[in-house]
Amino acid sequence: MKWAVPLFLVSLASATVYFQEEFDTNWESRWVNSNWKTDGSQAKFRRSAGDWYVDAEKDQGLQTTEDYRFYGISSKFPGFSNQGKPLVVQFTVKMERNVDCGGGYIKILPDGFDQSTFGGDTPYLIMFGPDICGSEKKTHLIVAYKGKNYLNTKRFRCEIDSFTHQYTAIFHPDNTYEFLIDDQEVSKGKLEEHWDILPKKEIKDPSAKKPEDWVDEPTLPDPEDKKPEGWDDIPELISDPSASKPEDWEDKDGEWKAPMIPNPDYKGEWRPKMIPNPGYKGPWTAPLIPNPDYVEEPNLHAFGTYGGVGIELWQVTSGMIFDNIIITDSVEEAKAFSEKNFAYRKAGEPDAKKVYDDAEEAKRPKPAEPEEHDFEGREDL
Question: Which portions of the chain have biased composition (kind: Basic and acidic residues) (predicted)?
Answer without folding.
Answer: 202-213
